[in-house]
TrEMBL record:
One of its GO terms (biological process) is glycosaminoglycan metabolic process. CDD domains: G6S (cd16147). The gene is Gns. PANTHER family: N-ACETYLGLUCOSAMINE-6-SULFATASE FAMILY MEMBER, SD21168P. This is N-acetylglucosamine-6-sulfatase. Keywords: Glycoprotein, Hydrolase, Signal. The keyword Flavoprotein does not apply. The lineage of its organism: Eukaryota, Metazoa, Ecdysozoa, Arthropoda, Chelicerata. One of its GO terms (molecular function) is N-acetylglucosamine-6-sulfatase activity. The conversion to 3-oxoalanine (also known as C-formylglycine, FGly), of a serine or cysteine residue in prokaryotes and of a cysteine residue in eukaryotes, is critical for catalytic activity.
Amino acid sequence: MNSNSFYTFHFLLLLQLWGILCINRPPNFVVILTDDQDITLGGLIPLEKTNSIIKKDGTEFINMFVTTPLCCPSRASILTGKYARNHQVRNNSVSGNCNSLYWQNNHEDKTFITHFKKKGYSTFYAGKYLNQYGKNEVGGVKHIPSGWDNWVGLVGNSRYYNYTLSINGRKVEHGSDPQKDYLTNVILEHSLDFVNQQNGSSPFFMFVSPPSPHAPFTPFPQYKNKFSNLSAPRTPNFGINGGMRKHWLLRETPKILPPSVIESIDDVFRNRWRTLLSVDDMVHEVYVNLKRKKLLENTYIFFTSDNGFHLGQFSLPWDKRQLYEFDVRVPLLVRGPAVEKGIEIKHPVLNIDLAPTFLELANIPIPEDVDGESFAPYLKKSKGKPSNRTSFIIEHQGESTNKPIPGCPQYKAGEVHTCEINCICEDSWNNTYICVRQLSDKENLISCVFKDRELEQNTCSIQKVKNPKKRLKQKALGRNRFFKTKENVPNKWGSK
Ligand SMILES: [Ca+2]
């Protein structure tokens, strides 16, 4: 071997070794979880940078659902990979297990991030966690959930100004100066600090949870006049009562929405989009800094939301909590190593699938008690077999206040909840349901059983769902009211 051949041989050997090292390097993760961002009302449209960075350069899952259309239960499902019935976080209150001691002692120490921590990942969380996080009765700001070693947790529910953060257990108050305190931007600053600390010595998992576009829908001043000529989409079910085929809460809404309520709905729609522009800036800044640090190529970026939203559908002003498509469908975009660019996946995926997917992508074993299924086979060119799921559960435990609703004498204490707009209530005791959503190239249906006056104990007693369709039918026959309806379901399966 002459000296040239000798050097070429060793150079190629080094390249090969470098390749092996690169292939085996555990991937990094960035997850951006928005709050209440719909997909059916155009919730992704204002995010031009995000659409370019993650949708165009990644994969979009066009049938992504949450199994519980409410913040705290859905977030608990994302963290655990379990249906709400199995983690028992039923609503947004401590008594409904939102950040309760029960949650902390039984589920929080086993969330997906604890497995990443054990594998040596550097971990980071910033923004809204569970709605009751930081409250004194459940451990206050000193409580840092297991597995997160860089913690910037928002105390309480989403807001944009005048909030408290727990920064690694230290209480930090913020005021209302847009330049210093706008929460989405504050979360971004902490996120960039974390990205800039990365030197490649260990992989990282960064979870970012901005308040947008949740109430109170406060845009950053720079964006407060955007979209002024837009109105909320007038879907076929906009501003009309649900009719006799719907359950009690939907029959209670006005036959036609008053113009003043429609005006408020349009205003909320515009402000939601405006708040999302700050999220779009966040995605762009994180992307630019990952690229600058040469971390982008080995980093998965997930973009999704904890629940959908409605704006005038079935004459409900604005909120979530319903079983219909607008509340249970959310965006899901993913980019990363080997993720195909610019494609749409029709296979139904769920919030409970996120945890097992993260774990599989990092080659970490998935715990047996997880309900979700990894959709990693769609994201990496490998041997994995995609799931053949064609049905899944959607469930919600309706809330009602035990006090009379001021100005709404038609309702008794204990009946309804969230009735601020013209006494139109967004939730009720019998808005408790379990549904089986069937979605495949052959079926596109939702079948639901509601908690009703006669049979209120019997609807939600399934403990571990192995065959949800069969089990629900067994439960439903003869004992409960059974609704089987085709609900404004966009048939994306038939679109190509
Ligand atoms: Ca939410």
